[in-house]
Structure formats: C-alpha cells, structure tokens
Amino acid sequence: MSKTVLRAATSIGLLALVFYFAGPARIFAAVARADAVWLTAALASAVTASVLSALRWHAMAGWIGLITSRTALIVAYFRAIAANTVLPGATLGGDTLRALHLQRAGHPLAASAASVVLDRMSGLWVLLVLSLTTTAGAQFSGLLPAQLLPLPAVVTLVLALAVSLAPTFLWQASAAWHVHLPTRIEQALAALHDRPAPQAHLVAQFAWSAAVQGFSIITFACAGRAVGLDLPFWLYVIAAGPVFILAALPVGIGGWGTREAAAAVTLGHLSNMVASTELAIAAAMLYGLFAVAQGAAGALSLLFIKTPKVSTKENS
After folding, report:
1. What is the 3-state secondary structure (H, E, C) of 194-207?
2. Which of 43, 55, 258, 288 is the most buried (most CB within 10 A)?
3. What's the confidence (pLDDT) of residue 140?
C-alpha cells in the first residue's frame, strides 16, 4: 500500500512541478484549443499502434509456443492498457494482466510471462535504435547543433550500432553460457534456443516494433501539431526515446508526471519555439489521454466480451 501511495504521490508531484514551471493556465489553454483534426489523427494512430502491439505480442507468444487467437490477445492488450491507466507501476500492472490472461487460457505462467517480457524488450530495443539513429543522423547533418547535444555524433552512432546488435550478441552469449546459470534460468534459455528460426523471428520482431513505435511517434507528433508545436518529425523521433522510456518507468501511475517532465526537457530544449515547453507538456498530456481513452474501451470490453478461450488454431 505504501508503494502505491508513493507512486501516486510521485505522479502528482512531478505533474505539479512541471505545471508550476511552465504555467498551468498556458498548458490547459493549449489543450483546450487543440485542433480537432490533428486530435482525430492522433487517436487513430494511437489505436493503430496498440493493435500492432497486440499483434507483435501474438507473434512473440506463437514463437514461444503459446498458441492463441489474435482476437484474444488484442482484447487482452486493451484490457492491459486499462490496468496501466489506474494501477501504479506504469506498464507493470498491464504486463502482469497480460501474462495472467495467457495463463488462464491454459498456458504455463513462466512461458506466458516470458512472452510479455520479450515483447516489452522488443519495443524498447527498436525505440532506442530509432531514437539514437535519428539523433546521430541529425548531428552529422548539422540539423542538431552541438550546443543542444554535446555528445559527439560518432559516440551516438556507436551507441545506435551497439543497441542494434545487442539482441544478436545476447543470443549468442546465452547459447554459450546458459549452462552455467541457475537451473530455472538455464532451462528457460534452453527452451528459447530450441525454438525455430530465431534470426527470422528477430527480423520479424524488429519490423513489428518499428511499426508500433512509428505509429506511437506519429501519435505524439500529431498531438504536438494539435496544440501548435510545429516541429519536424525527426525531432519527435529523437524525443520519443526519453519520453516513452521515462513514461514506462514504474515510479508513477500511467506514466503521468514522468512523461510530461521528459517532454518538457527534450522537446522544450530541442525546440527554438517560444512557449515550446508548455506546448510540449500539453502534447504529452494528450498522449496520455489517448491511452486513457483506449483503456476505457478495454475496461468496457469486460462487460461485453467474454475472456476468449485458448485456441489451437490462429485466427486469420
């Protein structure tokens, strides 16, 4: 209970802090006058990203050997979004719910949890690749001046390459060393290494995650455009790294507070626009509200859709 109170206080405290420095009246005014067309585009993009996320999870679960329907996992994913919007710990509550969904469908809990963890890691991996690669490209091209990001472009590029190759390196390392690990971990890794076509699956996961992150960044950019933050798309790609990662940290509720603070620091710093800080915070708030809207749909599904049973055939 104390952790729940602490996380709620963290979200509220961070929101209050960013509001104090940026001006709550200006932030709410930006949200109130948001352009309806851009808001509609942002919501459509957010829903697309969530559906693609569920399909990526379906692909990961299927590769592990957990066969269930696409429809079942799409429903479960939106219910997980609902959990993430009200439970402390950012994405932890929803991820736990996803694992339990697969377990209730008749799959082992350990394998169910592994599918969720690997799915989450896939998204983080590609987000870092996209953000770092775009940052390096902007530095080398001169679009991102050195005074805005003192880190040398070569270092950024090396980091991007290292992150890109990290899954392959970890896969090879685990193949060589998993026998020296504790029994349960060794057995889990051995089971993964027995799965077919790991490299082909890695490529497929990169493609799924690139699509998910692409639509998520489009959502963020459309939210920014809706409140008047007219920035080039590449800036949103760069900012998405720290903004999305900090929003997923288990220190608050629904990413509130950490997401807005990260947006204020990144977009507010990288943009040369007047009043960009409050607009960046407003865009981040709208991004969070799109998650709330999807979570509401997931919660309503509990009233109208029964929990799908495990299937031996995939839905097409």
Report:
1. CCCCHHHHHHHHHH
2. 258
3. 94
Which has the higher per-residue pLDDT, 275 or 25?
Answer: 25
The confidence score (pLDDT) of residue 183 equals 78
Q: Report the C-alpha gap between 125 and 118 in whole angstroms.
A: 10
Q: Where are the beta strands (DSSP E) in 124-200?
A: none
Q: Is the pLDDT of residue 46 over 90?
A: yes
> Who's near 163: CB < 8 A, 6+ residues apart?
125, 128, 129, 132
If you search the block for the tokens 């993430």, which residue do you land on? 84
In the predicted model, what is the mean pLDDT of the chain? Answer: 88
Compute the half-sphere exposure of residue 24: CA atoms within 13 Å on the CB side of its CA.
5
The CA-atom distances, in angstroms, between 81 and each of 57, 134, 188, 254, 290 are 14, 28, 28, 9, 10
Name the pLDDT band for 206 (thresholds 50, 70, 90).
very high
* Measured distance CA(114)–CA(185) in Å, rounded: 11
Determine which of 55-59, 127-131, 224-228, 250-254 has the lowest per-residue pLDDT on average: 250-254
Any alpha helices (H) in 23-89, and if so which ranges? 24-32, 36-64, 70-86
Is the model more confident about 297 or about 310? 297
- pLDDT tens-place string over residues 267-285: 877 776 545 889 999 999 9
Helix (H, G, I), strand (E, B), or coil: what is residue 253? strand
Question: What are the Cα distances from residue 130, in Å, to 133, 144, 148, 224, 240?
Answer: 5, 16, 19, 19, 9
Average pLDDT of the segment spanning 32-46: 97
Q: How far is CA 15 from the centre of its chain?
A: 20
Distances from the Cα of 52 to the Cαs of 43, 120, 153, 202, 305, in angstroms?
14, 13, 32, 16, 20
Given a contact cutoff of 8 angstroms between Cβ atoms, the answer to whether 182 and 198 are in contact is no
Distance CA 271, CA 156 (A): 20
Q: Of 123, 81, 125, nearest to 101 (Cα)? A: 81
Cβ pair 201, 98 in contact under 8 A: no
